[in-house]
């Protein structure tokens, strides 16, 4: 009684109002019980029917806005309207979309004439409705060809304008796609390429994994058509994300990767540098240019691991970055994202829904994604839908964002290509997501060494008897005289010969980007983390930026708390009080923007900051007549020619949003991209992104990304889930200078750290453990001069300690420093020096060695808040020992080993914290 069913119910109710006998008895009883004007409504459904019944009687106008006109009045007139509407709504249930025809045809009574009280006597009635015209008998055949052919359409739940646009296109064909002879030959050639590659590899590399596309080869002519049509529609970039199924086929036959390069990978002859781990061939990305009628289109296939759907948000982030670079931030029509799904994965993996939820959100919208589900009806090994999903279709997740779905039979290549073109046109017209459910089968097992008949005996008997889509389509074209009978075999021989040569076999590929990088990345390739960067800012510029980000528009009324923050920040920039964390951070962004860099900050409460420290976005407290809008992004008003800035309050998602930001950062090296976790340990929900992309993409794929992760971290008695950002997990991932792990302890350090990240020609992920209590700690402040001088310090020595008095050196990070500092002062200790390790990785051995040389024979203590089996201790111990002098000893002061990151009781937390501090200082 909602969504797509609403129009069907409306039609039935209109029939009932015109003639109660025209509807089935069960519906008549329903309407009589819920729609009588004398009824007292007891639910929203009853109220809706009551309201409808009280309106003037109108003919049902159907889903296209036109009345179905019949020569006979009465029940035939209204029944025919409902009958036609039912096909638009439910025709997909009877469509011939399964090439294996495994299941019994579903009985759909709503698609029968008798359901509406119509009989054979009504078949001669003349009907006109949308694209349908003729006698009812003729219209019935038109409906069957349109809605029950090789494509099953689901679209009646989308908004009216889009629905009418699709309906006109769909009903205009009535199942006849009218491709030219040349277009049909091209489809056959592409099918030949798809099948030919798989068969060639199957024979040449027996038993090796390739995750064959056989059974859904029609994907290749579909992608070919999409790319060529996209060029004509003004698309400049196409970004594709897909899992391993069919990836090699797409690389060779769409992207133009040389077969000889692929064969070298199969043969194990491809060599890499010693510090390059590489990855399996069906995870690798690729770039190329394809010539189209509208000019060259750049194709990019995203690198991705076997986490299947995790690539979806990565693609979206990359597309958003490309759109920003091209200045296409309104229509978003010049960069096209295409995501290929598996049928089991699209229904089973939550990141799909997380990513779809971003589709229409202002900080993440990319103008719609074209989704193709390569549906082999098996998933991994499951073929029984009772074990695969709850929903009817694997694509039902699309309905959460009102995306239309076209279910299409992979054995009808022309229907598949037409559906692909329709989907592309819809995306370009309405800038929304659209799904194609390409229903085929999987000729081989999950991989080429798997025997699927163990679990799907009936399915694989049918598959073994299937001649293949290419053979069936070739026979069709030969029968219709489009090709000679020998041509199909000629195409096979020509393609095989091209493979043997090893050169590119895809059409119109202009440039192979396999060994090249984008010009924007050239300056950061091969650089090292020790490269210097001047991050200081002159006082005049700093004041200019500070004034800009603290100026309140005349018509803006700030919350009194935010107003106090703005006033305090103006005092900071005037030198009347020291800088706090939030102001230093905003100044870092503001000065970078002033220098022409771009900034994109995203998080679940990034605008104000989870701990209300940032206040980069102000909200007008006036409720009426707001001439300057309800929001004011302070950083957007730094200077006239400043860089782009986005501060985005994201959805309550970690996995999809972090992957999105990674995709953005991996595409645009000129933008400082930051993701802030609401609490540091919430990053747990995005662990695949951290493990498979952020920490390892350079080693596996040679892909750099300067993404910053801001992770609130610190033990303050808030329990196990709000204390630790799981520092140890990031430390475990460190190797080969892959990421930076930083625990800053002052606002000035934050300022220089953020500026260094983009100014320095070095693009590696930056993981920041940000102390929550440091945001307002009165000790954790910096003078303005620390921003106009100096730089980020990997290690901060204790300048107050007297060398001759010190026999104990405490090494620590983050907020624990200030607690140790306060306790040392209160105890009046002169023998303890406290050294801050601000950057845990890459570790600054030489700096620490120089500091420890000043304290010969001193006892060195590593102090941390985390339990001994967590935090940094087990990872920095070796680094510290390498920096120590002869005669120095090393011990630790930590919490005891624990299964939980932190205790949940405040009193126990305080006891443990004091114990760590006292043991670190030698008081216990």
From TrEMBL:
Originating organism: Deinococcus cellulosilyticus (strain DSM 18568 / NBRC 106333 / KACC 11606 / 5516J-15)
GO molecular function terms listed in the Swiss-Prot or TrEMBL record: oxoglutarate dehydrogenase (succinyl-transferring) activity; thiamine pyrophosphate binding
A GO CC annotation given for this chain: cytosol
GO biological process: tricarboxylic acid cycle
Recorded superkingdom: Bacteria
Keywords: Oxidoreductase, Thiamine pyrophosphate
PANTHER family assigned: 2-OXOADIPATE DEHYDROGENASE COMPLEX COMPONENT E1 (PTHR23152:SF4), 2-OXOGLUTARATE DEHYDROGENASE (PTHR23152)
Region named Disordered: 885-909
Protein name: oxoglutarate dehydrogenase (succinyl-transferring)
Enzyme nomenclature, EC number: 1.2.4.2
Cofactors required: thiamine diphosphate
Domain Transketolase-like pyrimidine-binding per the UniProt entry, residue ranges: 579-777
Keyword Membrane included in the entry's annotation: no
Top class in the EC scheme: oxidoreductase
């Amino acid at each position: 009684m909602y969504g797509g069913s609403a129009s069907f119910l409306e039609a039935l109710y209109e029939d009932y109002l015109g003639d109660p006998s025209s509807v089935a008895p069960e519906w008549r009883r329903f309407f009589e019980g819920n729609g009588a004007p004398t009824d007292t409504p007891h639910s929203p459904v009853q109220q809706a029917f009551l309201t409808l019944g009280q309106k003037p009687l109108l003919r049902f106008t159907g889903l296209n806005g036109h009345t179905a006109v019949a020569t006979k009045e009465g029940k035939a007139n209204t029944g025919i309207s409902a009958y036609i509407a039912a096909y638009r709504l439910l025709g997909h249930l009877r469509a011939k979309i399964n090439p294996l025809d495994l299941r019994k045809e579903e009985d759909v009574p709503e698609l029968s004439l008798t359901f509406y009280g119509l009989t054979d006597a009504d078949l001669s009635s003349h009907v006109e409705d949308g694209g349908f015209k003729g006698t009812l008998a003729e219209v019935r055949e038109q409906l069957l060809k349109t809605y029950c052919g090789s494509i099953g359409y689901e679209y009646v739940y989308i908004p009216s304008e889009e629905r009418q646009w699709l309906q006109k296109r769909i009903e205009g064909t009535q199942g006849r796609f009218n491709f030219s002879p040349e277009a049909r030959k091209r489809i056959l050639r592409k099918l030949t390429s798809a099948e030919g590659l798989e068969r060639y590899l199957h024979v040449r590399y027996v038993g090796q994994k390739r995750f064959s596309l056989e059974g859904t080869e029609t994907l290749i002519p579909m992608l070919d058509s999409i790319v060529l049509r996209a060029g004509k529609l003004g698309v400049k970039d196409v970004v594709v994300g897909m899992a391993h199924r069919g990836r090699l086929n797409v690389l060779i036959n769409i992207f133009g990767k040389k077969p000889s390069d692929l064969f070298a990978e199969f043969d194990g002859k491809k060599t890499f540098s010693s510090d390059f781990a590489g990855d399996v061939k069906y995870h690798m990305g690729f770039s190329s240019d394809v010539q189209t009628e509208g000019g060259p289109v750049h194709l990019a296939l995203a690198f991705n691991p076997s986490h299947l759907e995790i690539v979806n948000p990565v693609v979206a982030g990359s597309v958003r970055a490309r759109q920003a670079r091209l200045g296409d931030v309104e229509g978003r029509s010049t960069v096209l994202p295409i995501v290929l799904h598996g049928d089991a994965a699209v229904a089973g993996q939550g990141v799909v829904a997380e990513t779809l939820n971003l589709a229409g959100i202002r900080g993440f919208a990319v103008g719609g994604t074209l989704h193709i589900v390569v549906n082999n009806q098996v998933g991994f090994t499951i073929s029984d839908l009772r074990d695969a999903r709850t929903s009817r279709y694997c694509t039902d997740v699309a309905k959460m964002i009102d995306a239309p779905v076209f279910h299409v039979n992979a054995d009808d290549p022309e229907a598949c290509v037409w559906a692909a073109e329709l989907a592309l046109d819809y995306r370009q017209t309405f800038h929304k997501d659209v799904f194609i459910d390409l229903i085929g089968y999987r000729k081989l097992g999950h991989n080429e060494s798997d025997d699927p008949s163990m679990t799907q005996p009936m399915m694989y008997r049918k598959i073994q008897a299937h001649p293949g889509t290419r053979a069936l389509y070739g026979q069709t074209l030969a029968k219709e005289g489009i090709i000679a009978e020998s041509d199909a075999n000629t195409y096979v021989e020509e393609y095989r010969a091209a493979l043997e040569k090893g050169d590119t076999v895809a059409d119109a590929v202009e440039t192979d980007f396999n060994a090249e990088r984008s010009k924007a990345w050239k300056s950061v390739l091969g650089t090292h983390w020790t490269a210097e960067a001047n991050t200081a800012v002159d006082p005049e510029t700093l004041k200019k930026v500070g004034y800009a980000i603290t100026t309140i528009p005349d018509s803006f009324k700030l919350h009194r708390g935010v107003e106090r923050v703005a006033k305090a920040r103006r005092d900071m920039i005037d030198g009347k009080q020291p800088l706090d964390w939030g102001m230093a951070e905003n100044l870092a962004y503001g000065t970078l923007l002033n220098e022409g860099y771009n900034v994109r900050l995203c998080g679940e409460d990034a605008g104000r900051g989870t701990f209300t420290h940032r206040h980069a976005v102000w909200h007008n407290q006036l409720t009426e007549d707001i001439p300057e809008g309800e929001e004011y992004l302070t950083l957007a008003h730094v200077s006239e020619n400043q860089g782009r800035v986005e501060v985005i309050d994201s959805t309550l998602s970690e996995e999809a949003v972090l992957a999105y930001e990674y995709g953005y950062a991996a595409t645009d090296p000129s933008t400082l991209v930051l993701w802030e976790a609401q609490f540091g340990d919430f990053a747990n929900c995005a662990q695949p992104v951290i493990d498979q992309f952020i920490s390892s993409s350079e080693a596996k794929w040679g892909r750099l990304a300067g993404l910053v992760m801001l992770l609130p971290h610190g033990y303050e008695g808030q329990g196990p889930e709000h204390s630790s950002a799981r520092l140890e997990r990031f430390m475990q991932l460190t190797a080969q200078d892959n990421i930076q792990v930083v625990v800053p302890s002052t606002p000035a350090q934050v300022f220089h750290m953020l500026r260094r990240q983009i100014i320095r020609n070095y693009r590696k992920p930056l993981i920041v453990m940000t102390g929550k209590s440091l945001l307002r700690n009165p000790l954790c402040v910096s003078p303005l001069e620390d921003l106009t001088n100096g730089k980020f310090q990997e290690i901060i020595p204790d300048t107050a300690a007297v060398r001759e008095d010190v026999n104990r050196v405490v090494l620590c990070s983050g907020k624990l420093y200030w607690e140790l500092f306060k306790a040392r002062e209160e105890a009046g200790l002169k023998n303890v020096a406290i050294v801050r390790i601000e950057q845990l990785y890459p570790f600054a051995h030489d700096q620490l060695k120089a500091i420890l040389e000043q304290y010969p024979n001193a006892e060195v203590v590593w102090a941390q808040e985390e339990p001994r089996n967590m935090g940094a201790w087990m990872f920095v111990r070796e680094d510290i020992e390498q920096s120590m002098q002869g005669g120095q000893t090393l011990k630790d002061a930590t919490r005891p080993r624990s299964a939980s990151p932190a205790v949940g009781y405040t009193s126990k937390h305080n006891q443990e914290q004091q114990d760590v501090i006292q043991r670190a200082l030698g008081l216990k």
